[in-house]
Specification:
Largest sheet: 7 strands, mixed
CATH topology of the largest domain: D-Maltodextrin-Binding Protein, domain 2
Number of domains: 2
Helix content: 25-40%
Strand content: 15-25%
Radius of gyration: 19 Å
Length: 281
């Protein structure tokens, strides 16, 4: 969890009942199942028979897009779900504001893009079983331990508005905790050695490290002194609330992909900690 509302920009945008400026991209990607495929759940109900219509809010590393090809953690998971159900996969980019509104209106089967589970959201949408968790991590040039004690005497950078800022200032001293307006300026100082580590979400830290071989990421270990470290957010798929059979099938597929190691593998492939696979305790 990183801000007063997790993934604040995404949460606010996706929860909005969009009016102007909400729409999908003209670019889409499609893939078909192999001949003779046997679905895990025969006759799973989808908007179009034999096709899984997916809206994708592109936000790396959760979701990525290169040309007409979608990827990232959830892009890979959705592809595996389509394979398990022998469905043609049709993906289309969606603006943040349009994603959940479109699902609520029944215009697609599901939407992905770093969506966190909340009780409020579960009242109006079908939310899948958690695919993985998003926690806290350190991003640095040099290898660091992941405990609060390992940061003593070091300078760390945080972004204004993140939940853990005041706790780090209290424990490490205000002079050792630098506040930044955005990730870009913080990363510049990490690479230039002006701060020893940045404190980010696991997803962003992993993504940044994957993009820059000079950076390394370390999971931050939970400690009572940093209250936000005790909470990890479950990342889910959103579906129409009344599509209970589809929700059940997706839930079952997600559990299969967790149990067979697929979710851990795609997390690792996208620079995230594979131990974040599955729901929180």
């Amino acid at each position: 969890m990183k801000m007063r509302r997790p993934l604040a920009a995404l949460a606010c945008g996706l929860m909005a009942a969009a009016a102007a400026g909400c729409g999908t991209s003209d670019e889409s990607g499609t893939s078909s199942p192999p001949a003779g495929c046997k679905p895990a759940h025969p006759d799973v109900p989808t908007l179009s028979k034999g096709r899984l219509n997916v809206l994708v809010y592109v936000t790396p590393p959760y979701t990525t897009k290169e040309g007409a090809t979608y990827g990232g953690v959830e892009g890979a998971i959705v592809k595996e779900i389509a394979k398990l159900e022998c469905l043609e996969l049709k993906e289309q980019s969606v603006s943040a504001a349009a994603g959940l509104a479109s699902i609520g209106a029944g215009r697609a089967d599901l939407v992905v893009g770093g969506i966190y589970y909340t009780e409020e959201r579960a009242q109006t949408l079908g939310l899948s079983a958690p695919m993985y968790r998003d926690g806290m991590a350190l991003l640095s040039k040099d290898e660091l331990g992941g405990t609060l004690a390992d940061l003593e005497g070091k300078t760390v950078g945080v972004i204004q508005g993140y939940l853990w800022n005041e706790d780090f200032q209290k424990e490490l001293g205000s002079d050792n905790v630098k506040l930044y307006q955005d990730s870009a300026s913080l990363l510049t100082d990490v690479k230039n050695g002006r701060v020893d580590a940045a404190v980010l979400t696991s997803a962003e830290a992993g993504y940044r490290a994957a993009q820059d071989s000079g950076l390394t990421t370390t999971a931050f270990q939970s400690t009572p002194e940093i209250a936000a470290s005790a909470t990890q957010n479950d990342v889910v798929i959103a579906l129409p609330k009344d599509k209970t059979d589809l929700i059940a099938a997706v839930d079952d597929d997600i559990r299969t992909l967790i149990e067979n190691g697929t979710v851990a593998d795609v997390l690792k492939d996208n620079g995230m900690d594979p131990d974040l696979a599955g729901p929180g305790s």
